[in-house]
Amino acid sequence: MEFNKIISVNGKPGLYQVVSQSKNAIIVESLTDKKRLAINSTQNVSLLENIAIYTYEEDVPLLTIFKSMYTKTEGKEAISHKESGNKLAAFFAEVLPNYDVERVYSSNIKKVIQWFNLLVVSGMDFSKVEAPAKETEKE
What is the pTM of this model? Predict the structure, then answer.
């Protein structure tokens, strides 16, 4: 399973792995039940690789946060995303202490923890996932 092929589909629960692409659809496989489906090109899709969380300094990529969570939980699932908002915020603050409290909502934290747990259950080993190389700017 490659992190750069994991997506979230707006309006559908869970995470999906991109299997193939056609002219006007993406073929994806659910990480939970392994069922395949076609996602229309008009649906809103987000690559997890492109998501970042606001901090007071700079935005932190989701992969960096997942790696930090993986280290903290020693490769096991984190707390349940159904815990109280205060517990979720406290856990998230341990993983990313300088996150922007005003711009990162409780619902964002809940979703990040839920996605992390889904990926861990699906067998994602964040200790072996490499961060994408940044493109060098041409001047």
Answer: 0.89
